[in-house]
């Protein structure tokens, strides 16, 4: 497999890394005052006195930190206009062609642009005309990496897979409608405060799951608008807002047998107090219904399975945290139906990693990823190759731990392959149609990752927009840090 990457080289084109020398003779922008302010303040420890001039500067300029002037506000409101269009050659958005090449367009100063054609096999980069790119035949690339399954939105009508039935919600209850117009009322316990909503048909159309939600509280918070523009007196505004301890909406699944028209009881012992019910999923044979139960407080999260024949509930995954389960950013489950497995992301060992779980027994087969670094997300699951493509950070001790990198690994935890390793923050990978090549998009130090000398206008503009007082302080701080031999 050919990967269009290489070790970072400040003399090489940073639009992408395939070993193509496209450097231009241009001086890098000078680092203006304030550039070293990110330096650790630990370098200043051990000193005891500030230079008199430095102290005097702060004393004289202290009013600068009070109420801003009209000019300050005008300058702040115009930042977008002043800084816009100062960075060039900062992205590569490839369009792949039938001959295996790809093209993209660079934005240049003064409203100009540049069309570029790349041959990843030959290792060439050629500046061409826009007409030449337009004349080439683009091809569709592989679908974007898999996205986690999203909860099914409530629908008033939901047809069975075999097309014989439509389930609708009427008067807060589930009603089946046949093609000939006859109706069967499946539930009778739905009310305005305990209404049925989302419906999930089994693949064989013999059963369905309907989510009944108990309504939450009706607390209202009041805001006071002290100075309305259209009247002298204050105006009040209210909106619904539940506070800690208030009743929240509680969704729970109910199982129905379509053939008999009756409900199969399901115990809620393992999901007594839900914050949410998500990632609903029927097994292909219709024998089990899976869902993720996130308990209020977010310290208990489970993947549960309901037996479609008996209604028995078993726990496939059990997470109990003493602190907090990050359901907003780290909850990820992928059902692998052909093998009766699932991929589950967890911080159970202190680091966010992916685990392979047997859905029949609930046992963890193995950790797919492991180490003192974190998985940020699973982008693609290749079941045939039994491997995942994922984002990670913190794996390189000599890099910023928040830099995003890409890799792939086998389900059994072997064969870790880094898709990016250059020092930088790597955006989404744009693979070629055959999935063998990609131009990594990295962005961290623009002067290094872009062609040298192309961002100096941004540096200059950024410094010039600082107020004179702040610029003076920055100059003093720069001098202070640059001359650590001063008695501070």
Topology (elements, then pairings):
Layout: H1 52-61, H2 70-77, H3 79-83, E1 95-96, E2 102-107, E3 113-119, E4 124-128, H4 130-135, E5 157-159, E6 165-170, E7 173-178, E8 183-185, E9 194-201, E10 207-214, E11 220-225, E12 235-240, E13 250-257, E14 262-264, E15 274-282, E16 288-295, E17 300-307, E18 313-320, E19 333-336, E20 341-346, E21 353-358, E22 364-367, E23 374-382, E24 387-393, E25 405-410, E26 417-418, H5 446-449, H6 456-464, H7 468-482
Antiparallel strand pairs: 1-2, 2-3, 3-4, 5-6, 6-7, 7-8, 9-10, 10-13, 11-12, 13-14, 15-16, 16-17, 17-18, 19-20, 20-21, 21-22, 23-24, 24-25, 25-26
Would you kindly provide a written description of the structure presented here, covering whatever features stand out?
- The chain is mainly β and 488 residues long.
- The chain has 7 helices and 26 strands.
- The strands form 7 sheets. The protein has a 4-stranded antiparallel sheet with strand order 1-2-3-4.
- Helix 1 packs antiparallel against helix 7.
- The protein is globular and about 70 Å long.
- The N terminus and C terminus are likely disordered.
